[in-house]
Amino acid sequence: MAYAIDLFCGAGGMSEGLIQAGFHILFSSDINADVQRTYMNRHQQLGLLQGVNTYFHRGDIRELNGDMIREAIQNLEIFRGRNIPEIDAIFGGPPCQGFSRAGRRNPNDPRNMLFREYLRVISEVRPKYVVLENVTGFTDTKFYGFVGVTGHPYEDGALVPDILRNEFSFIGYHTLEPRILNAAHYGVPQRRNRIIVIAYRNDVAVPVYPEATHSDKTALTITDAISDLVRDESVRRKVHVKDTEFQAMSKIGRTPDINGNTIHSHGAIHNNEISTHQQIISERFALFREGEDGAGLKDRVMSEGIDITHSPALIAHCTEKMGISAEDVIALFKDGDVSRENADILLTKKNIRTKLDRTRPSATVMTIADDYISPFEPRIFTVRELARIQSFDDSFEFLGKRTTGGLRRRVEVPQYSQVGNAVPPLLAKAVATEIIKVL
Questions:
Q1: How far apart are CA 17 and CA 195, in angstroms?
Q2: So what's the pLDDT on residue 342?
Q3: What are phi and psi for residue 92, nearest 5 degrees?
Q4: Could you give the CA distance from residue 272 to residue 210 in angstroms, rounded to a whole number?
Q5: What is the pLDDT of residue 103?
Q6: Which of 91-100, 246-255, 334-343, 424-433 has the lowest mean pLDDT?
Q7: pLDDT, tens digit, 9 for 90 and up, residues 205-233
Q8: Tens-place pLDDT, residues 238-267
Q9: Which of 269, 322, 355, 401 makes a 20 to 30 Å CA pair with 366?
Q10: Are 422 and 412 spatial neighbours (Cβ–Cβ below 8 Å)?
Q11: 95 vs 268, which has greater pLDDT?
């Protein structure tokens, strides 16, 4: 049996992949109560029971140490009366907000320093192998005033990969050259690039990164992933003839329980509630072409024109705001040569939404639900649809609020965020399988 620890585990995407690869997770940790509910519920489904054969710790990694982890594992019922085994691997993805290119980057973001705490715990536990996962912005982030686990100071502006390589060396580990892996190349219907760093103790066999199983041309598409979940029956009949292999496996289950049996969804589709959009919002969504973002739609409206004859809510809105008749509104937008002011009235000034292309893998699943529009219906994706796109089994249920906003986002991790923050299980499985091979 191969034994693993999953730190910053979130809702459990990495853990799903580890279990699929053959690891038994003895200890996992995250700071948030929302993800704890989802994570522990799933592990109970799989027969991983708190205090019996696994232990989940909710808390700040800065308060975690090797002795605490060993004590928690030693107290598991499965090790009663015998010594605990050596930990084969630690996996983890320290929070990426400070590294991300998707938002404002801050090299002094205190969350960046959690990567140092990850290294500290590794140095105290001393597993055979280590896997670190993060966003690609990790590769060119610079630290200022950084002091390593062993007290080694670094010059201001030192690059994170260089620091990481040095830090692993100081604590007795070699590292493979960091590599960017695209989840779409490992059976995930999503273009999601992540930096993976594999380190290995000086006394163990050298691992490798997984070889791609799919190319850009053979990658799974949004249709492959979720065509069976389309609500409009007339649309579903056109796009879904029978389940794809990916859809069938999502229902059968990929993740084995403690007895080696996967959990079949038996037709239950959790977390598939559709957001109730105002009519005017649905009509705006319907104006998008597949693969088009808000800026592209606005440029098309201004240069080519658009037919809004069948958009009564939009017509009424523009009539009120522009002070002209409905017939004049329709004619104005159909003829093209629309001013930016009028285009903004029709579409609003928000340009970041994109209607995804059904014939391609999804763009990277984010934590904010309304950034993407379904290619099949004028609405945002459901939590389940995004979970499918991340390669979660249908039997995996996300708990807590579906979404949240405002200041609550600082403390709450709703279902959409749990999905968007997760490591795609099939990508995690591909990496973990290579560690299993050398074990």
A1: 16
A2: 95
A3: -175, 150
A4: 32
A5: 47
A6: 91-100
A7: 999 999 999 999 999 999 999 999 999 99
A8: 999 999 999 999 999 999 999 999 999 999
A9: 269
A10: no
A11: 268
Q: Tell me, what's the pLDDT at 138?
A: 85
pLDDT at 143 over 90: no
**Alpha-carbon span 370 to 379, nearest angstrom:** 9
The two structure tokens encoding residue 387: 């979970």
Contact between 391 and 187 under an 8 Å Cβ cutoff? The reply is yes
Q: Nearest 5°: phi and psi at 248?
A: -60, -45
Angle at 47 between CA 429 and CA 396, to 5 degrees: 55
Confidence (pTM) = 0.94
Sign of CA dihedral 401, 383, 285, 313: negative
Determine phi and psi for 401, rounding to 5 degrees: -65, 150
C-alpha pair distances (Å), 41 with each of 158, 263, 390? 41, 13, 19
> Quick one: tokens of 419?
């999905």
The answer for residues whose C-beta is within 8 angstroms of residue 345's C-beta and 6 or more apart is 317, 318, 321, 322
Residue pair 253/263 in contact (Cβ under 8 Å)? The answer is: yes
In angstroms, the CA 340 to CA 349 distance is 10
Residue 403's nearest CA partner among 377, 376, 382 is: 382
Active-site residue (options: 96, 230, 365, 389):
96
CB 20 within 8 A of CB 102: no
The four Cα atoms 391, 196, 117, 207 give a dihedral, to 10 degrees, of 110
CA separation, residue 285 to residues 158, 278, 314, 318 (Å): 45, 11, 11, 16
**For 69-113, what is each residue's pLDDT tens digit?**
999 999 999 999 999 999 999 999 887 554 544 444 455 555 557
Give the mean pLDDT of the chain. Answer: 93
**H or E element that contains 294:** helix 294-303
362 DSSP β-pair partners:
190
Residue 162 makes CB contacts below 8 A (sequence gap 6+) with none
State both tokens at 121.
């715990």
Helices (DSSP H) in 173-278: which residue ranges? 222-226, 233-239, 245-252
- What would the pLDDT profile of 182-197 be if each residue is shown by its tens digit? 999 999 999 999 999 9
CA atoms within 13 A on the CB side of 10: 27
Strand partners, 278: none
9 catalytically annotated: no
pLDDT band at 156; cut points 50, 70, 90: confident
- In the block, tokens 């966003």 appear at 135
Cβ contacts of 364 within 8 Å, gap of 6 or more = 190, 191, 192, 193
